[in-house]
Amino acid sequence: MTPQEGIPLDRFLTETLREYPGATGTFVDLMQSIALAGKLISSRVNRAGLSGMLGATGSTNVQGERVQKLDAYANDVFIRALEHRGHTCMIVSEEEGGVVRVPEQWHSGRYVVAVDPLDGSTNIDVNATIGTIFAIFRRISEEGTPAGDADALRPGTDQVAAGYLIYGSGTVLVLATEQGVHGFTLDPLVGEFFLSHPNIRYPERAQIFSINEAYAHEWTPGVREYVDTCKAEGGWTARYIGSLVADFHRNLLRGGVFLYPGTVDKPEGKLRLLYEAFPLAYIAERAGGAATDGRSRILDITPTELHDRTPLVIGSADAVQAATARMVGQTE
Ligand code: AHM
Ligand code: MG
């Protein structure tokens, strides 16, 4: 255990922010709200089988996907946690067709939050790992006024922080800021997140590739070539959970690459730019990794719609670079 480990999230944030002259504490407040939402969702996820929360609501979201009861719960919890505290002006959620603006009776604050409230929802009913992913932007429009669409549709490089919560054998909050990437584990008895993974960096060597091989017949030749190379090289192992956040987290700690490429039928792939690819790309880069859409850096893309999709190759920098080189038709 390093001397830093075990310090509570609040203390960590306050001490980190002291380094910023003029910081008002609004970001700490925002992160406290996100942590609270994470604790509520974590508690409900742990009891899902008992509390009648398994299964679908019967409705579909704006993207045509079946909404699970926990998707709806997590979305409500996030919006309620963020909208009235004066730090947020706008929320973009996978479960909402349009943006959610902070209602007029509350102060419309400094930050825009894009969130996938419950990522990996097909895994809910089988007790596999799921998570929450969030991106944080500072608004462009003036604080105290209603936020505009331009506050949401911005390149990934505009993020000031990003993170995720992973509900696995334990609940971990991973937060990336300019200061690096740090992981905090929830002690459910105390109800606090404590620093458990300071200064996360990708390991030197990638050994894991994660891709849904069921779609191999739809892959472009470059993707097939890359996966074949990993298999031929030896020293690699394949792991795919089907929860982006869980696949990403494992590869971040162990070294690896996750691919969800576009296919001939769906060149834009499945994953969403604003609240899946952007935040994870921000985290990956802060941890020494990389993220591309198979051609360009993810963080350089500007979304045109809230729910834009993108192919995603993300993880250890060398592996991402090697996969991308194949995908653009070059040789390494
Ligand atoms: P979701 O946000 O609705 O849960 O969908 C996204 C999920 C990702 O977590 C995961 O990487 C991917 O869908 C898995 O898709 P597939 O089953 O096509 O491999
Ligand atoms: Mg998702």
Write the layout of secondary structure elements.
Elements (H helix, E strand, L loop, with lengths): L8 H9 L8 H21 L9 E5 L5 E3 H15 L4 E6 L6 E2 L9 E9 L10 E9 L20 E9 L3 E7 L2 E8 L4 E6 L10 E3 L10 H13 L3 E2 L5 H11 L1 E5 L12 H14 L2 E4 L19 E5 H11 L5
Parallel strand pairs: 3-5, 11-12, 11-13
Antiparallel strand pairs: 1-2, 3-4, 5-6, 6-7, 7-8, 8-9, 9-10, 13-15, 14-15
Helix pairs in contact: 2-3, 4-7
Bound molecules: 2,5-anhydro-1,6-di-O-phosphono-D-mannitol and magnesium ion.
Structure description:
The longest helix has 21 residues, at 26-46. The chain has 332 residues and is α+β, with helices and mostly antiparallel strands. It contains seven helices and 15 strands. The protein has an eight-stranded mixed β-sheet, with helices on both faces. It has helices spanning 9-17, 26-46, 69-83, 221-233, 244-254, 273-286, 317-327; strands at 56-60, 66-68, 88-93, 100-101, 111-119, 130-138, 159-167, 171-177, 180-187, 192-197, 208-210, 237-238, 256-260, 289-292, 312-316. The chain starts with 8 loop residues before the first helix and ends in a 5-residue tail after the last helix. It is globular, with a radius of gyration of 19 Å. Helices cover 28% and strands 25% of the residues. It folds into two domains: 9-197, Fructose-1,6-Bisphosphatase, subunit A, domain 1 (Fructose-1,6-Bisphosphatase, Chain A, domain 1), CATH 3.30.540.10; 208-329, D-Maltodextrin-Binding Protein, domain 2 (3-Layer(aba) Sandwich), CATH 3.40.190.80. Magnesium ion binds at residues 116, 119, 244, 276. 2,5-anhydro-1,6-di-O-phosphono-D-mannitol (AHM) binds next to strand 5.
